Amino acid sequence: MKQVLLIILAIISFLPACKNPRQTTSISKKVTANPSELNGAWQLDYISGITTPFEGLYPNKKPQIIFDVANSRISGNTGCNNFSGPVSIDGSKISFSQPLTLTKMFCPGEGETVFLETLKKINLWAVTDTSTLNLIMGDVAMMRFRKVK
Questions:
Q1: β-bridge mates for residue 127, sequence order
Q2: Is the dihedral of CA 77, 81, 82, 88 positive or negative?
Q3: For 32-36, 62-66, 70-74, 134-138, which range has the lowest pLDDT when averaged over its residues?
Q4: Closest by Cα among 27, 116, 46 to 77
Q5: Are 79 and 57 spatial neighbours (Cβ–Cβ below 8 Å)?
C-alpha cells in the first residue's frame, strides 16, 4: 500500500512538468495588425469587470461599433444612444481617448456608462478570427465583439 501511494505521489508531482505550453491560448499570439480588418460593424457580446449580467446591462439592444479605418472614425450605439468620433489606430495599438459625440436620450441602467468607460481603457485590439474582435487593456480582453454580417 505504501508503494502504491509513493507511485501516485510521484506521478502527480511529475504531471505539471509535462504540461504542453502550446495548450494555452493567448490573444497576443493571434494579434492581427492589419487595421483594415476592423472595418465594418461589430456587435458587443462580452464585457469584462461587471457584476450585473450582460443581458441585464443591455436588455433591449446590444452595443455596436462601426469602424471607418480610412478616415480614423468610429460610430455606433451604446445600447441606448448613438455615438461617433475619432479613433487612433497604429498597428495593434488603438485609442478611443478623444471625446465622442453622443445623442442625449435617457438611458436606464448602467450599460451605457460601463460601455463608454471600458472603451476609454482600451489600448490594443486583436481579431482572433475573421468574426471576433477583442478590445484589450494591457493583456486582458475587456470587450469582445462579433462581426455584423
A1: 133
A2: negative
A3: 32-36
A4: 116
A5: yes
Reading the block at residue 84, the C-alpha cell is 461617433
**pLDDT value of residue 50:** 86
Residue at grid coordinates 481603457: 121
Q: Average pLDDT over the chain, rounded to whole?
A: 83
**Which domains occur in the chain, in start order?**
31-147 (2.40.128.270)
DSSP letters spanning 1-13: -HHHHHHHHHHHH
Report whether pLDDT(82) > 90. yes
Quick one: how far is CA 10 from the chain centroid?
41
The amino acid occupying position 148 is V
Which of 61, 37, 62 has the alpha carbon at shortest distance from 47? 62
For the chain, the residue count is 149
Q: Quick one: pLDDT at residue 29?
A: 47
H or E segment and range at residue 55? helix 54-57
Interatomic CA distance for residues 56 and 114, integer angstroms:
12
Computed from CA positions of residues 16, 21, 25, 28, in that sequence, does the dihedral angle turn out positive or negative?
A: positive
Chain centroid to CA 70: 22
